[in-house]
Amino acid sequence: MTASPHDRELVIRPLTGPDELALFRTLPYVLDHELADDLANGLRRPEWMWVALRGDRVLARAAWWAPGPGSAAPYMLDFFDLDDSLPEPERGDTGLQLLETAMARLFPGGTERPEYGRYVPPDWRTDPVARDTVEARTRVLERTGARLLVERLRLEWTPGTAVPEPSGRLVFRAVRDREDLVSLMARVVEGTLDAHSLAAQTSGLSPRAAAEQQYDEELTGYRSPREWWRIAELPDGEPVGFVIPARNNYHAIIAYIGVLPGHRGRGHIDEILAEGTRILAAEGVPRIRAATDLGNVPMARAFERAGYANFERELNLVWDPPPGESA
Fold this sequence. Notes:
The chain contains nine helices and twelve strands.
């Protein structure tokens, strides 16, 4: 008697090479179209892309990403999918086996696990199918020790959307050097509503250290000119805030925007965001992407006023650092 596909042994392994990309793409996700280019550009590696197979059927998959080809280790888990036709508890147990096996290989000996991010529909809570998809994956991640850090709004500006002209209340200049911007970034975290900034403070990083880390590890990685970066000042030269228009590997983005504590609540955020939008729009980009925490209502409203539409959300889950280590 021939064994049925259901009786075959579950095999969990990384991809053997880029030629297995079609196998990996058996399960769908909104970032599938980026995988080939990411592999070609060194942002992904076959050994960071894992599948759980029964025969030639993919029951679960996971993949990690890095922001540059020289990255020594994965930076983020951004693919984790399950075959949603599987019954429970098989669906969840298969995903758990996949994650635990892959993470034991990629992050051995208590190595800190990078953050997980997943893009979800803006109405995922009211759509039964979308909600089941999201919650099934979240349950598995929580079984590995992950916890929800934040839900974020993903936003998009498209050409044809009006951008207000400068009012003259603020003067914009280019960022002079690292210290020019880092000193302001360190001040912006006071009273912040951003979950990632708050997590950095909770981990023990000082505002200055967190600003330096973000500058060195994130902002310097963008492949767009730093001449786009702007600091907003009052006419007398007092700094009010800043905006970092940039281009990542995929889109033009508002990478970072902030208003200094003493100048909040005066409408400056609208002018600073408009300046960043103008800089990118002048480059003829097909769209500008941005994101803000669901709980950061003032920033979300500023994006809405500027014509940025909420087209998606993102869930970020994290694992706490191993005992004795800090983030």
